[in-house]
Design brief:
Shape: elongated
Helix content: 40-55%
Strand content: 15-25%
Largest sheet: 4 strands, antiparallel
Number of strands: 20
Distance between the termini: 62 Å
Strand order of the largest sheet: 5-6-4-19
Length: 515
């Protein structure tokens, strides 16, 4: 066995073992993320939410405003890691959101529905009580007995957060739940109103910056404590303003208000002069949600939840089981054909296809890809294309053997000659997948998008297994099976070419006998 073949075999064994480990039932922690199967609405059900735009000042939102809101909601939903969400307009002022495989419905709703105004306000020498209401220079907390519904293009923080400069000790705080779109009848709003001292509502606090002044945000971990945080960076014009304020007010309090309700009131310990800081006091999931909301911006039109329902699978368990059974029968029939017709190469291709299936399914769990019936169909189709690549390779291999080449040379030349056909056909398929993904994203056809994603992943992996895995396994088998019998390579005696112009006769003796 050649050294390069040995190294390739070791790599294949390690890759297969890793893929099988990821494929095992249950969730796996891989590279800091959970690898698990995410099923679509048709397989496992999920969350269905109906949102309605609030008519501000008695005016209904325009079609352009609703389309803008739909795009922002879709961006937030896509950031949840779902590849099969449905976000579409219904009528003139409603949006339907379907989220398959959602673990925490409340967390998901907070992620895509948040419309609140985030403000960093100057609290002076006295910390403000968490959960109370404040009037700010951007608007009062109460107008005509109702809560002021401000909406600007900024992110919405998760309750219980604190901004601090990077690598600076954190301030103590008490997390509190906040409603992202409270109404005057909301019990939490009434509770906050009752907890607010009357003199506090008679004062107007200065807003230093808003969520619109944040340039970027991402979930991160504190390098010292390992606690989850959200790293943020301010825009240049806001960074200077924030630096001046924190420099001049060290030792004072900078409160954070969401929809005029205080969620944290930390003390400024050090100036934040470089425009970069972190938001602490959040869980890992809250940090992820906060980063999504800050990146996506707020909704230009407030949304109210009309209904929120957990829906069951649209396909019954019997239908799913029958689909799986049909797929296994089809793959088994293909494997049997490959072994009977191509014999030893066919058996090697079946092993390569098993490795292919393990790697693809592991990728589905790692990305993750939401599996629907259409997505499974794309995967099965990619299996057929992987078999097609092996057929091309083995047909070339048999041609080279008929021409009298040695086995090792026939394998190398056969793969080399088959590669252009495999490459061109797979690239054509990938181009089609790209068009389908664009079409599904542009027109909200999530089923088409899911089919194209699973097919594209399958095609890419099939090229790897057909050219690299199958070739390596054939070279390994050739080094172990020492036989010149071409039958096991799929060639019968009657398929070999007849010799041309050559005869075999007994040798004549040069000696003569004389009487």
């Amino acid at each position: 066995m050649r050294r390069s073949t040995l190294y390739s075999l070791i790599f294949i064994i390690i890759l297969t073992a890793f893929a099988v480990w990821v494929d095992l039932p249950g969730s796996r922690n891989v590279f800091g993320r959970q690898a698990e199967v995410v099923e679509g609405l048709d397989l496992q059900g999920g969350l269905q939410v109906l949102l309605q735009a609030r008519h501000v000042g008695g005016k209904a939102p325009t079609r352009e405003q609703m389309e803008e809101v739909r795009q922002v909601v879709e961006q937030r939903v896509n950031s949840l890691g779902l590849t099969e969400p449905v976000v579409q307009l219904q009528g003139s002022d409603r949006i339907v959101v379907e989220l398959p495989g959602v673990k925490d419905p409340e967390q998901a709703i907070r992620t895509f529905q948040g419309t609140g105004l985030l403000e960093f306000i100057d609290a002076g020498d006295t910390p403000l009580q968490v959960g109370t209401l404040v009037n700010t220079t951007l608007g009062p907390a109460i107008t005509n007995g109702n809560q002021n519904q401000n909406s600007t293009k900024n992110g919405t923080p998760t309750p219980g957060t604190t901004p601090t400069p990077e690598s600076t000790p954190q301030a103590n705080q008490t997390p509190v739940a906040a409603n992202v779109t409270p109404t005057p009848e909301d019990p939490q709003f009434q509770q906050a109103l009752q907890a607010t001292p009357p003199e506090q509502l008679q004062r107007t606090y200065t807003t230093v910056i808003t969520g619109n002044d944040i340039a970027s945000a991402r979930p991160d971990f504190d390098p010292t404590t390992g606690e989850p945080v959200v790293s943020f960076e301010l825009k240049p014009e806001a960074a200077k303003k924030f630096a001046d304020f924190t420099t001049q007010n060290v030792g004072k309090y900078l409160a954070i208000a969401l929809d005029k309700k205080i969620i944290s009131s930390p003390q400024i310990r050090d100036p934040i002069t470089n425009g970069r800081g972190v938001i602490t006091g959040v869980t890992r999931e809250e940090a992820r949600t906060l980063a999504i909301q800050i990146r996506s911006g707020s909704l230009s039109v407030p949304l109210d939840i009309i209904s929120s329902n957990t829906v069951g699978a649209t396909l019954g368990n019997d239908s799913v089981q029958r689909s799986i059974r049909a797929g296994l029968i089809g793959i088994g029939a293909v494997a049997l054909f490959m072994i009977l017709y191509y014999r030893l190469p066919g058996f090697v291709s079946v092993v390569a296809l098993a490795i292919y299936a393990a790697v693809v399914f592991a990728l589905f769990k790692l990305i993750p890809v939401t599996l629907t019936l259409a997505g499974i169909a794309g995967f099965v189709l990619s299996v057929g294309m992987a078999v097609d690549a092996n057929v091309l390779i083995f047909a070339r291999l048999k041609d080279e053997l008929r021409r009298g080449r040695g086995l090792l040379q026939a394998i190398d030349v056969g793969f080399k000659n088959a590669w252009p056909s495999i490459r061109d056909s797979n690239i054509s398929t990938l181009i089609t997948c790209a068009i389908l993904i664009w079409f599904g994203s542009r027109f909200g056809a999530s089923v088409i998008k899911g089919f194209a994603i699973t097919l594209a992943i399958g095609v890419i992996v099939s090229m790897f297994t057909a050219i690299f895995v199958t070739r390596t396994l054939l070279q390994v088998v050739l080094s172990m099976v020492h036989t010149r019998n071409l039958w096991i390579w799929g060639i019968g005696k009657n398929q070999l070419p007849e010799p041309e112009g050559r005869t075999l006769q007994p040798a004549k003796s040069s000696r003569t006998t004389q009487a």
